[in-house]
Amino acid sequence: MRGTVVVVDDETKIRSLVRSHLERDGYTVLEAGTGARALELARVADLMILDLRLPDRAGEDVARELRAAGGLPIIMLTAKADEAQRIAGLRVGADDYVTKPFSLAELAARVDAVLRRTRGEAARTEPASFGGGMLRLDAERREVSVGDRDVDLTRAEFELLSTLSARPGRVWSRTELLSRLSGEHESSERTVDAHVKNLRRKLGDRSGQPQLVATVPGVGYKLAVERDG
C-alpha cells in the first residue's frame, strides 16, 4: 500500500475519476465533498487533494487548519488559474497546485512527488521529543528513550514507532502499519498486534495508565502524546 489520499471536491464525478486513477496506482483513496468531512478524514490520511471551492467553507481555511494541526501534505485543486490564486494557495500551506482541467496522469505524478519529498524530509528531521520529554526518538541514530531510560527496539518495533510518531494522533490501520514493515509484506495483521504488544512492553505502557501507543477500537493504533515544540 502506497498511502492514503483524501480527495476533496464538491463534484462527485471529479472525485470518482481521481479515485479510480489513484487506486490503480496502489493508493487507498477516501472522498470528501465538504471541508468538514475533509478535516474528519485528515486524521487517517497521508496526503490531501483539496479543491478551493467547497460548499461549506473555503479550501484555504481547511488548509490553514490542517497546517495548524500538524502539516498534512496538500495538493490544491481548483479552476482558478491565475498566478495570484496559486501564490495564495501556496502561502496557506499547499505543497503543490493543479488547475482544472487537469491530466489524471500528471496529478498522480504530483502525488508521488509530494509524498516522496515529504517522507524524505521526515526521515532527515532532528531528534524528536514527545509528551514533555516523556518519549524521545532519533531517527538517524535509531535511538529511543523513555524518561531517562534507553529503549532497545527491534527493526520492526522501531519502524512502527517511527511511523506512529511521524503524525502524532493520526490513526493508522493495521494494514497501513503492516505495509510499512519492510520484509513482512506477506504477514498478517496479527503481526502488527504482536509487534505493538512488544513495543508497549518496552516503552513501559501499563494497563490502567496513559499509554504512549493507544488502541483505536476497530481501526488500529496511534501515538497518544503530542510532539514537543
Automatic annotation (TrEMBL):
Identify one Pfam family in the record: Response_reg
Domain of life from the UniProt record: Bacteria
Alphabetical keyword list? DNA-binding, Phosphoprotein, Transcription, Transcription regulation
Q: Which residues bind DNA?
A: 125-225
A Gene Ontology BP annotation from the UniProt entry: regulation of DNA-templated transcription
Q: Which of the residues bear the PTM 4-aspartylphosphate?
A: D51
Whether Metal-binding counts among this entry's keywords is no
Q: What is this protein called?
A: DNA-binding response regulator, OmpR family, contains REC and winged-helix (WHTH) domain
Tell me which species this is from.
Answer: Amycolatopsis marina
